[in-house]
Amino acid sequence: MQIKQNSPLVDETEKISFIITYYNIDVDMLCQCIDSIMALSLRPSEREIIVIDDGSDVSPIEALRKYDNDIMYVRQSNQGLSAARNAGIRISTGMYIQFMDADDYLIQPAFEHCLDIVRYNNPDIVLFQLTDKESKEVTVEFEGPVDGSEYMRQHNLRAFACGYIFRKATWVNLRFRSGILHEDEEFTPQLILRAERLFYTEAEAYFYRKRNKSITHNDDMKWRMRRLNDMEAIILNLND
Length: 240
Known about the structure:
By secondary structure, the protein is α/β, with parallel strands linked by helices. It contains eight helices and ten strands. Strands 1, 2, 3, 4, 5, 6, 7, 8, 9 and 10 form a ten-stranded mixed beta sheet that branches.
């Protein structure tokens, strides 16, 4: 296992960087997340697993020692999800990037389908579906390529940043904005608009755990008002 401080961007190679953001999550879930990546048909040279620990109360490093040199672990002071993802992008060396939350995992057969789209179609982005119920049925159909603006004119936006693989070069100088909720809704449409070759599939490739008190499931009134205010600011920013 490599333990690194944030470092400058280095040359990209033909591999996928999996950026896992971690904060006070059960370490067994984090290990399941990592295991789901390592179960894929990717050679070690074709994958990069980066765990960004955003200042958890207790570091998961002891539980991660079993992965030896298979992952890169970075611990930073608590700065929020946006800063953690931005740090992961800066450190990553892959041609493609896949974001993951530490309590989620990849559904192997469906994600393999997405990997095949990456391998054989030279995409900028591959969009797929999320689910909270794992199914044995896997679609092998997909559509594309289309450019990002055409896709957005024809489809409802799936903004969750873990719901797609994207080419790092498409990202250019885009960043997640810190200090807001629903940062994905601001980041994703800007990323999609940069894409010239977008593919999309109905394959349910990412298992998403619903947790009480998460950003989308917290019913506290003050929290809901903050969500609405941040969403309004994001809409105005995107309109500009």
